[in-house]
Design goal:
The protein has about 325 residues and is of the alpha/beta class. The chain is built from 9 helices and 15 strands.
């Protein structure tokens, strides 16, 4: 039973109980991504039967959900060379050669993305017990930058469509806390298993609602999400990563008085768990519901932006 008046105490207990500090050595930069080994990748690749693929990414454009909180904005896409320049002779190339170029400016966590291990701290500590000021400086994440993850995130993906199994009309209401019992019930309903190194995709249905009704407070407002009480499940299952279709992965409002993202504070700096947010599972979920198969090959490499604490990603699920 959570003491909802004592987030500090509950976070401290969970951090101690579910810490992976030192598990992969003092120099580790991958956290739970270490669970994805060669055998897990072979297992994931063997799941490809039909060859049908799904992008699990939202669009990166000015019509996204961001409202400027923490200076997060939607992407700004600008053309630097266009067909007009080519047609009207403004490019200066010989023998009729022409082309187009463009540039994009955006926060790295404004749409579908991974949270890097340097993204969240616990009382000034970063992943593996390092002091945060020695890890992330104005030059970026000097130790656990997202670029270290780029070669590794490919393996067996599992969709847990909690919205479809537990919710009404395929969606969970905002503020719905997904417990271990809900996750277990969904696993059983899908007839799937979870194993060490899996990449778990949790669909709540909130993105479907936002796309239907408008963004509203999707970026930072009330949302269904994982309960703080799932920390033990996340640790015990030894999953490599977990992604949701919501802005913040965990239930919002959070389950304590005067708290902000307490589950993040446990699972990123203490457990070393890789978290994905704002993923788009809609097409994949429809296909899984049709054929009854909820496991697939999943590749989701972040952009190897040196020193970044998060990265956009276009995850691809192949069945």
């Amino acid at each position: 039973m959570l003491d909802r008046s004592d987030p500090e105490g509950e976070i401290t207990k969970a951090a101690a109980a579910y810490s992976n500090w030192g598990r992969w050595g003092e120099d580790d930069v991958l956290g739970t991504v270490n669970f994805i080994d060669e055998a897990k990748r072979r297992e994931g690749a063997a799941l490809v039967r039909q060859g049908v693929s799904f992008s699990l990414s939202q669009s990166f454009d000015t019509n996204g959900p961001q409202k400027g909180w923490r200076r997060r904005t939607n992407p700004v896409h600008t053309m630097t060379d266009t067909g007009l320049d080519a047609v009207h002779g403004g490019q200066g190339f010989p023998h009729g050669f022409g082309g187009a170029d463009d540039v994009i400016a955006m926060p790295l966590q404004c749409s579908t993305q991974w949270d890097g291990l340097g993204h969240i701290f616990d009382h000034g500590n970063a992943w593996n017990g390092r002091r945060a000021d020695r890890v992330v400086t104005s030059e970026g994440d000097l130790v656990t930058g997202i670029e270290h993850m780029a070669p590794h995130i490919a393996g067996r993906g599992v969709l847990l469509d909690v919205g479809r199994v537990i919710g009404t009309d395929g969606e969970l209401p905002d503020g719905f806390a997904i417990t271990e019992q809900h996750l277990t019930a969904t696993v059983e309903a899908h007839g799937v298993t979870l194993g060490t190194g899996d990449i778990v995709c949790v669909r709540t249905g909130q993105l479907a609602r936002a796309r239907r009704d408008g963004w509203g407070d999707y970026a930072g407002g009330p949302a269904p999400g994982l309960s703080f009480t799932t920390a033990g499940w996340l640790h015990r299952t030894e999953i490599a990563a977990i992604a949701t279709d919501t802005w913040g992965f965990e239930v919002r409002p959070n389950e304590f008085e005067d708290a902000f993202q307490p589950l993040h504070q446990v699972v990123i700096p203490n457990m070393g768990l890789l978290i994905g947010e704002m993923w788009n599972f809609e097409a994949l979920a429809e296909h899984c519901a049709t054929d009854g198969v909820y496991e697939f090959w999943l590749t989701a490499a972040p952009l190897p932006v040196t020193g970044a604490v998060g990265s956009p990603v276009n995850p691809i699920a192949v069945k």
